[in-house]
Design a protein that fits this description.
Helices cover 37% and strands 19% of the residues. By secondary structure, it is an alpha/beta fold. It has two domains: 336 residues, Rossmann fold; 244 residues, Alpha/Beta hydrolase fold, catalytic domain (Rossmann fold, 3-Layer(aba) Sandwich), CATH 3.40.50.1820. The strands form three sheets. The protein has a nine-stranded mixed beta sheet with strand order 1-2-3-5-4-6-7-8-9, with helices on both faces. Helix 19 links the parallel strand 17 and strand 18. The longest helix is centred in the first third of the chain and has 24 residues. Keywords: Signal.
C-alpha cells in the first residue's frame, strides 16, 4: 500500500485540479453567485409581475376607501358591472337548451333526474336535478357548482351537501364543469401526449388556447351557470324568485362569478375561494385558467367586487382558517364588502362563517350554509347536517359511456376556440404604417419604455483569442439581468446580441456558438432574460397549471395585470441594446433569438431601431398555430401576447421590419413540428431582399448570414 501512494497521489491531484478547472469554467458563466445580495433572483419575473399587480390594487383601494354614500356605491356597482363584463367578454346569444332527461333515480325520499342540456349548440352540459320526492311545486332551488375533483358533483363530500339540501326541501341542480365528471376532454388514448390531465389542467391546457384567441375561458364557465338557471326556470316545480348558488373551491369561483353576473341569483354562498388578490399573489399565486379574468387587476377590480356588486342581495362567505385561499384576505374582503352592504341599508344580508380547518368542507360551515339559504330563500327548518347515504358515482352518470364527448361527439373548449378564432379575422394591417402596428403592439402587450439604469461589472476571464466579461444590468423591475460579453482580441467592430430561451450557458460553452462568433471577430453579448438561465423561475406559488415544465400560472399573472411576459422581455432587450450602445459607441447591433423567446425578440426588434439585423432560429412561426393544434406544446405559451391574433400575428411583425434584414430558420408550429418550406413561404410572403427563409439553423448558416452584413 505504501508503494502505491506516490502513484495515487498524482492521479488524485490531477483529478482534483481537473475538477477545479471544470468547476471554475462553469462558474465563469454564472454572474449572480458572486453577488450575494442579488443571488436570490430566480423568482424575479413573478415578483416583477406582482409589483405591477400591487400598484393596481393600491389604486383600487384608494378609490374604494373614498366611497361613502349609497350613491357612491351604486355608481361603483355600475362601473364594476361594466368592467366585469369586459373581463369576461361578450356572452353568446342564448340558443335552445334542448334538454334531455336520460334516467331517473328515487331513494329515501329523494328523486334524481339525470339530464344534459346545450349551453351552446352541441356544447353539452351533463347534470342532475335532485328534488324531494313528495313536494313538486314552488320549490326553492340551489345551483350547485363543483370544485376541482374529477368526479365533480358525484363525489361523496359534495353529495353530502346536495342531499342535505334536498332533505331540507330544496331542489338542487348540480352540473359538471367542463373538464370534470362526464365532460373530461383529454381521456387517455394512444398517441396523445397530453391526456389524463387533472381538472386544473383540463381547464388550463385548452384555456390557454382560449386566451391566445382573445377569449376569457371563465366566460364559458359562467355561461354554463347562466344556462343552468335558464333550465331551472323551465321547470314548473321551481320558484323563479328563490334561486341560490353555492360551491366550494373551483365551485366557489364559479358560484361567485354566477352570483355577480346573473341578477336572478337571490342568495349566494361561495365556499373556500374568496380572498383578496394581494394575499393570493403573496401566498398561493394565480390559479388555473377559469379563475383568471382578462385584465381584472388592470381594470381596477379585485375579488371583493364579485361580492360588492351583488349588494344588497344576500351573500355568505364560507371560509376556513388554513385554506389555500388566504383567510386574512377573506377577512379583509368581508370588512370592505360590509361597507357596501351598510351603505345600501342591508348590512345583515352579508355574512361570513369560518372554521378552523384546511381547504375542506366542514360540518360547521355546511350547517351555516343550510341556515343561510333557509333564511334568505324563505324555506325554514332544521339546519342540522344529516348523514345521508350517497349514490354511487356510476348511478349518477348521465351518458352510457360516462363521457359526453364519447357519447354525443359534442364541442370541447378546443373546438370552440377554433371556431371563435376562425370567425374573427385579424384586422388587416395592409397599408398601415409601422407606427400604427407599433401602437397596437404597445397597447396589447403592456409595454412601457424602459430607462437604462445601473450596470455592475462582475469580472473578466481570459480565453483563447478573447476575453469573457461578466455584468449585471438593471432590469425594468427590482432585479438584474446576468450578462456575458465575449470580447475578441481582433474585433471587426460588430456586435451580436444572442438570446436563447434555454439561457446563456449553452451558447457560452467552449466550442459553442458564441465561441465561434467571437473567433470570427464579433463581440457577442449573451444575457439571461427573465425566466431563463440564472433567472429561471423557481418555487412559483401555487403552480396548479404547470404542464410539461412550463408554468401557465405565471403567464396568467400577466393576463391579470395586462403586463405580458413578452412586454417584460421586450423591455429587457431594449435595456441590453442600450447597454451595448453605451459600451461600444455603435448605433446598431445584430440580434439573434433562439427557441421559445423568438416572439419576444421579434416584438422587441419592432420597437428597437438599434437592432439592424435579426435572426430568428428554431422558434414559433405563428401564434395562430397554437390554436390549430389540439396537442400543442405549452412551452410556447409564455411568449404569446393573449388575444394578439385578432390584430396581428408574428408574420405581420416580420413584414413591418422591412427594410431591416430578417432571417428565419428552423421554424416550427404550435406542436413543435417543422414548418414545410411551402407553408413557410405562404405564411411569410415578403420573402426577398428583406427576408431570408431557411429550413436549417446550423451555426455555419448563421455565420454566413451575419457575414452578409455590409
Amino acid at each position: 500500500m505504501r508503494a502505491m501512494k506516490p502513484v495515487i497521489l498524482p492521479i488524485l491531484l490531477c483529478i482534483s485540479l481537473g475538477l477545479t478547472t471544470f468547476v471554475r469554467a462553469q462558474d465563469d458563466l454564472a454572474v449572480l453567485p458572486y453577488w450575494k445580495y442579488y443571488h436570490g433572483q430566480p423568482g424575479a419575473l413573478y415578483r416583477h409581475l406582482c409589483e405591477q399587480a400591487f400598484g393596481q390594487l393600491e389604486q383600487r383601494k384608494k378609490m374604494v376607501q373614498a366611497l361613502r354614500t349609497q350613491q357612491d356605491w351604486q355608481k361603483r356597482q355600475t362601473v364594476v358591472r361594466q368592467k366585469l363584463q369586459e373581463a369576461f367578454g361578450t356572452f353568446p346569444e342564448k340558443t335552445p337548451l334542448n334538454p334531455v332527461v336520460t334516467g331517473k333515480l328515487e331513494r329515501d325520499g329523494i328523486t334524481v333526474e339525470k339530464l344534459y342540456f346545450e349551453s351552446l349548440p352541441k356544447y353539452y352540459v351533463t347534470a342532475a336535478l335532485f328534488m324531494p320526492a313528495g313536494k313538486r311545486e314552488n320549490l326553492p332551488a340551489i345551483v350547485f357548482c363543483s370544485g376541482h375533483g374529477a368526479p365533480a358533483f358525484r363525489s361523496g363530500v359534495y353529495q353530502q351537501m346536495i342531499l342535505n339540501y334536498v332533505k331540507k326541501g330544496f331542489a338542487v341542480l348540480a352540473f359538471d364543469p367542463i373538464g370534470q365528471g362526464e365532460r373530461i376532454q383529454y381521456e387517455k388514448t394512444e398517441g396523445r401526449r397530453f391526456a389524463g390531465l387533472k381538472p386544473t389542467l383540463e381547464h388550463s391546457y385548452p384555456g390557454a388556447q382560449s386566451f391566445v384567441a382573445g377569449v376569457t375561458p371563465a366566460m364559458y364557465f359562467v355561461w354554463d351557470g347562466i344556462r343552468a338557471v335558464d333550465y331551472l326556470l323551465t321547470r314548473p316545480e321551481i320558484d323563479a324568485t328563490r334561486i341560490g348558488v353555492t360551491g366550494r373551491s373551483g365551485g366557489g369561483t364559479q358560484s361567485a362569478y354566477l352570483a355577480a353576473m346573473d341578477p336572478r341569483i337571490r342568495a349566494a354562498a361561495p365556499e373556500c375561494y374568496l380572498t383578496t388578490y394581494d394575499k393570493l399573489l403573496r401566498s398561493n399565486g394565480p390559479q388555473d385558467a377559469e379563475q383568471i379574468l382578462t385584465g381584472m387587476l388592470a381594470k381596477g377590480l379585485d375579488l371583493g367586487d364579485l361580492v360588492e356588486v351583488r349588494a344588497p342581495r344576500p351573500t355568505l362567505m364560507v371560509t376556513t382558517t388554513r385554506d389555500m385561499f388566504s383567510m386574512d384576505g377573506a377577512r379583509e374582503l368581508f370588512d370592505e364588502a360590509k361597507k357596501a352592504y351598510k351603505a345600501l341599508g342591508a348590512e345583515s344580508n352579508l355574512g361570513m362563517v369560518e372554521d378552523d380547518a384546511p381547504h375542506a368542507s366542514t360540518q360547521k360551515n355546511r350547517e351555516a350554509t343550510y341556515a343561510f339559504f333557509q333564511k334568505h330563500l324563505n324555506n325554514p327548518g332544521s339546519s342540522a347536517d344529516e348523514k345521508i347515504p350517497a349514490f354511487r358515482a356510476e348511478e349518477l352518470n348521465v351518458t352510457p359511456t360516462g363521457n359526453v364527448f364519447a357519447a354525443l361527439k359534442g364541442e370541447t373548449l378546443f373546438s370552440l376556440t377554433q371556431k371563435r378564432a376562425s370567425a374573427v379575422a385579424p384586422q388587416s394591417i395592409a397599408g398601415n404604417s409601422s407606427q400604427t402596428l407599433v401602437k397596437q403592439v404597445i397597447a396589447l402587450t403592456g409595454y412601457t419604455p424602459p430607462t437604462l439604469g445601473e450596470v455592475i461589472f462582475s469580472g473578466k476571464f481570459p480565453r483563447d483569442g478573447y476575453d469573457l466579461e461578466r455584468y449585471l444590468v438593471k432590469g425594468p423591475g427590482a432585479y438584474y439581468l446576468p450578462v456575458l460579453w465575449f470580447k475578441p482580441e481582433k474585433s471587426i467592430g460588430k456586435t451580436v446580441l444572442y438570446i436563447d430561451s434555454k439561457g446563456k450557458a449553452g451558447a457560452a460553452q467552449k466550442g459553442g456558438v458564441a465561441d465561434q462568433l467571437v473567433q470570427a471577430g464579433y463581440d457577442v453579448v449573451l444575457p439571461d432574460l427573465s425566466g431563463a438561465g440564472e433567472l429561471a423561475q423557481a418555487d412559483l406559488p401555487g403552480g396548479d397549471s404547470e404542464l410539461d415544465s412550463t408554468s401557465l400560472n405565471l403567464w396568467f399573472a400577466g393576463i391579470l395585470t395586462r403586463k405580458s411576459l413578452v412586454a417584460v422581455r421586450m423591455e429587457e432587450i431594449q435595456l441590453l441594446t442600450e447597454f451595448i450602445k453605451r459600451k461600444t459607441g455603435t448605433t446598431t447591433v445584430s440580434a439573434v433569438g433562439v427557441g421559445t423567446f423568438v416572439p419576444d425578440v421579434l416584438h422587441a426588434t419592432l420597437l428597437t431601431p438599434a437592432i439592424g439585423r435579426l435572426a430568428l432560429l428554431n422558434g414559433l412561426g405563428t401564434y395562430r398555430s397554437l390554436i390549430e393544434q389540439e396537442q400543442y406544446l405549452p412551452r410556447y405559451v409564455p411568449s404569446v401576447v393573449a388575444g394578439a391574433i385578432n390584430t396581428y400575428d408574428l408574420p405581420d411583425l416580420v413584414a413591418a421590419l422591412a427594410p431591416r434584414s430578417v432571417w428565419l430558420a428552423g421554424v416550427v408550429n404550435g406542436a413543435g413540428q417543422p414548418v414545410s418550406t411551402s407553408e413557410l413561404e405562404r405564411l411569410y410572403p415578403s420573402k426577398g431582399k428583406h427576408l431570408s427563409l431557411s429550413s436549417t439553423a446550423e451555426r455555419a448558416a448563421l455565420l454566413a448570414w451575419l457575414g452578409q452584413e455590409k
